[in-house]
Amino acid sequence: MxxxxxxxxxxxxxxxxxxxxxxxxxxxxxxxxxxxxxxxTDAAVDTAAPVRWSAQxxxxxxxxxxxxxxxxxxxxxxxxxxxQRCLETVEVPLAFERWFQFVDNERxxxxxxxxxxxxxLVISRQFDLLELVEDELLLVAPIVPRHEVCPTPVVLSVGxxxxxxxxxxxxxxxxxxxxxxxxxxAVLASLRKTPAKD
Length: 198
What we know:
Structural class: alpha+beta
Radius of gyration: 28 Å
Largest sheet: 5 strands, mixed
Order of helices and strands: HEHEEEHEHHH
Strand order of the largest sheet: 1-2-3-4-5
Number of helices: 6
Shape: elongated
Helix content: 25-40%
Number of strands: 5
């Protein structure tokens, strides 16, 4: 008997979980439209790192009722994004690994999702596995991508002082300014040190 061909864009979840056979793949980044929106505009798509993924289903027996349907999913890639400090390209590694439980309908999914740490999804015979991979990679992508150390010097503006190392900001604040007015509290302190006259 010929083995059933598995299509990650049209995955029949229950039979896949029943077999327990893992699948994996390497899909071009260009197939993930939402991930492409996060890339630096100067980065070429045809040379981008592919998205690598793997999945394995599992049936977990219960004391009462039918076994639960679970899916273990992993995914990884490297995304060329724009560093928000120097505005140059920064390679950001993205990776995740998660378990998902599948149930028969939306009502069960909503009830279990409220009390479970794992995501609960509705079972399908045409489940888009790669869309779920993309969802999870988007969740682990940084909101503000940055180099650990930028390759080019960064000129800080007033709004960037929070990004400067602590020693730099402390040195800058310690420098005396010729335009500073006398501190009124310093004047009061000097008066307190003056001995009272009889």
